[in-house]
């Protein structure tokens, strides 16, 4: 079991950057696959990025590939989402998620643990 707390959201102009952090509790962080999802007003939650336990395998939604980078520091029980070249359509609440085992890191339904989310607003 793990508890997740996101931080780093805020208001930024288009073209700017933000780095989101997800701090996890417990001693088994390195055992979890970690993912970032987002939900805009009136829309369903969608996949953004995910990272395997070792950090050697990463996955991205096509719309953020090349702009966002997911990484993890297992020793600090933290996963990051570096967001560059932000666009207004990136505006959403961003959620951190974790699971011990899953076959499709982009599938939100396969994650058992979720943070409360952090708001990212990108102005044009």
How would you characterize the overall build of this protein?
The chain has strands spanning 4-7, 10-13, 18-24, 33-39, 46-51, 58-60, 68-73, 78-83, 92-99, 113-114, 118-123. With 124 residues, the chain is an all-beta fold. Strands 2, 4, 5, 6, 9, 10 and 11 form a 7-stranded mixed sheet that branches. It is globular and about 40 Å long. The mean pLDDT is 94.
Mean pLDDT: 94
Low-confidence stretches: none
Q: How many beta-strand segments?
A: 11
What is the succession of H and E elements? EEEEEEEEEEE
Which secondary-structure class do the elements indicate?
A: mainly beta
Terminal-residue CA separation: 40 Å
Please bin the fraction of helical residues. Answer: under 10%
Short description:
With 124 residues, this protein is mainly β.
Q: What structural keywords apply?
A:
mainly beta, seven-stranded mixed beta sheet, 124 residues, four-stranded antiparallel beta sheet, globular
Question: How are the SSEs ordered, and which strands pair?
Answer:
Layout (H helix, E strand, L loop, with lengths): L3 E4 L2 E4 L4 E7 L8 E7 L6 E6 L6 E3 L7 E6 L4 E6 L8 E8 L13 E2 L3 E6 L1
Parallel strand pairs: 2-11
Antiparallel strand pairs: 1-3, 3-8, 4-5, 4-9, 5-6, 7-8, 9-10, 9-11
């Amino acid at each position: 079991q793990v508890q997740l707390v996101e931080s780093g959201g805020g208001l930024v102009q288009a073209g700017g950057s933000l780095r989101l952090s997800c701090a996890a509790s417990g001693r088994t962080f390195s055992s979890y696959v970690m993912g970032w999802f987002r939900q805009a007003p009136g829309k369903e939650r969608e996949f953004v990025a995910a990272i395997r336990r070792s950090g050697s395998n990463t996955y991205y939604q096509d719309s953020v590939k090349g702009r966002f980078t997911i990484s993890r520091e297992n020793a600090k029980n933290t996963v990051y989402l570096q967001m560059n070249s932000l666009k207004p359509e990136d505006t959403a609440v961003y959620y951190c998620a974790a699971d011990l085992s899953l076959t499709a890191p982009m599938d939100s339904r396969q994650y058992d643990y979720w943070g409360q989310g952090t708001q990212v607003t990108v102005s044009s």
